[in-house]
Amino acid sequence: MRKFFGILLTAVAAFFIAYIFKLLFVEWEVAQARVTQIESSIELKEVASSLPVKLLDENDAVFSEEYVEWRQPLALENIPLVAQQLVLFSEDVHFYDHIGFDVSAIARAFVANADSGEKSQGGSTITQQLVRMRYLQEEKSYERKVLELFYAHELEQVLTKEQILSLYLNEMYYSNQVYGIGGAATFYFQQPLAELSVAQVAFLTAIPNNPSHYNPLVNFANTKARQELLLDVLVKHNAISAEQGEEAKAEAIVLNVKPKIEKFPAYSSLALHELRALVARAEGYEDRLTKASDKDAIEQQLNERVHYLLQSGITVHTNLRPEKQARDEQAISRLLGNGQLQSAVTTVDNQTRGIVSVYAGKNFEKTHFNRAARGTRQPGSTLKPLMVYAPLFETTSYAPQSYVNAGSYCIGNFCPQNYGGAVYGSVPVTVAFRYSYNTPAIRLLNTIGLSTGYGYLKQFNFKHLTDADENFATALGGLTYGVTSTELADAYTSFIDGSYLPAHTIRKVTDANGELLFKWEDKVNYIWSPRTTRYMRELLADVVNNGTADRVYTSTGYVGAKTGTTNDFKDYWIAGLSSRYTTAVWLGFDTPQNMEWLEDSRLHHYIFSAAAE
């Protein structure tokens, strides 16, 4: 019987070993097939310092600094020995002995993972971790693990141990967009690494093990606890004495985080959003995207290009008017009060056509959704001036005193109604515009032709228009996706003097040496004749003086505006211009809801008045 069980166990063991070898053979074949790819992809790229992006206001004063990544790469000889020891003793004690991977560590990890049933323990060397950071994805799979071994071995053939360790110390992630131990020293303590104490270096070394869990700005106690474990590791390997270890543990760690200038995040986030579009236009990505079948690849190339620029220390010169931005933020937030009601407001200077002020929501932070840049909503009747009335004056002999039927009207199955279902007779165009009647607007659009009206609308920078929007409902603000306050304010600048020059936050972009990199090369487009412009300014002013924008007031002289309300009162809009500024305002909730109760307050009128002042 014992002999039988012995034979059975031997057979099972043989089967198991054969199965393991089969798996290894499969992985070996996969990896071998990629050897050529591996050898060609191993490149020794220098780790470059990453400089902050500076954003300047219209007076060329810095109002914001953005760190995509904070790096201060150091040569290995400039990294203190204790910093090297902390990493080696805690991460890869046999670093100078292995060939890129540690067979015994992998075996221990394999046993641990087999016991747990999960791929949780990696047994990775410093070389493997560097490979993972530079060449491979972070997901844990056995196929990737085998590939990782080949990369690690090849890397060890190309680089010296000192080069690998130096790269690793400069690549490790220290949370808060900080990379490399040199960058961590200047970011968290504002001191060169060589000037830090053993306690401070150990504190920094604690972070990369789990950058979220050991983020010292959020979980300081976690970081301190791991620092003390690392100090024990130094004592264990006789790098410091037990007494020195206890002294280091007792040393108070006081962070001195590198300060950043971060004023007006609503404006800076809009400017950085615009930067991508500027790079796409200037370097041909925009044209390539319109023609390409594989847009994802080009988008990725554009993203990489922008990322590189953001790391290179560029300066973005903007049109921000800081005193106005601060005043608008305070006034609009006060008008909105507490609660969930939100607003998006964009204001353009009439002379420069630069965006000088942006409101993107209450208590806005740079990580928040920028409503002025990306908050597309149905614009309601604010599109009527752009798609109906200005094109009407431009292409016909109609004048504000001309008459139009305000009675019931249908085009096919589309039968719009006036507010409250009211039916009127023949009224002057001025009256139809003043009270924003719907049926006259559709009649007049049909008079000039849908393609004509929509053609004028397409001349502006409405990024979300689609072919499906070429319909009569668009004149009443019924779009597929909607518009933003920035797009609407941009279009309304054409009523300043009939010309259209796209409004921008960015004046120019310069490199770290002050050399010009990019600027908008837009040309002025004269869309409206002086006659049309005069008529439209009269109509917009009449809406303020006698119509639906009756609560609007500025002390600047001229002011004209057009209001818009969407179905079920889910969005309130007002757009127009004063003597100094062109402004568009959206008022609503992030999750749309009926706001009929807010109609009589005319809150959006007061917001417009504050921004247009």
TrEMBL record:
Gene3D superfamilies: Biosynthetic peptidoglycan transglycosylase-like, DD-peptidase/beta-lactamase superfamily. It comes from the Bacteria. It holds the Pfam family Transpeptidase. It is found in: Cell membrane. GO terms for biological process: cell wall organization; peptidoglycan biosynthetic process; proteolysis; regulation of cell shape. Keywords: Carboxypeptidase, Cell membrane, Cell shape, Cell wall biogenesis/degradation, Glycosyltransferase, Hydrolase, Membrane, Multifunctional enzyme, Peptidoglycan synthesis, Protease, Transferase. Its main location: membrane. It catalyses: Preferential cleavage: (Ac)2-L-Lys-D-Ala-|-D-Ala. Also transpeptidation of peptidyl-alanyl moieties that are N-acyl substituents of D-alanine; [GlcNAc-(1->4)-Mur2Ac(oyl-L-Ala-gamma-D-Glu-L-Lys-D-Ala-D-Ala)](n)-di-trans,octa-cis-undecaprenyl diphosphate + beta-D-GlcNAc-(1->4)-Mur2Ac(oyl-L-Ala-gamma-D-Glu-L-Lys-D-Ala-D-Ala)-di-trans,octa-cis-undecaprenyl diphosphate = [GlcNAc-(1->4)-Mur2Ac(oyl-L-Ala-gamma-D-Glu-L-Lys-D-Ala-D-Ala)](n+1)-di-trans,octa-cis-undecaprenyl diphosphate + di-trans,octa-cis-undecaprenyl diphosphate + H(+). One of its GO terms (cellular component) is outer membrane-bounded periplasmic space. In the C-terminal section; belongs to the transpeptidase family. PANTHER family: BINDING PROTEIN TRANSPEPTIDASE, PUTATIVE-RELATED (PTHR32282), PENICILLIN-BINDING PROTEIN 1B (PTHR32282:SF11). This is Penicillin-binding protein 4. It comes from Metalysinibacillus saudimassiliensis. The lineage of its organism: Bacteria, Bacillati, Bacillota, Bacilli, Bacillales.
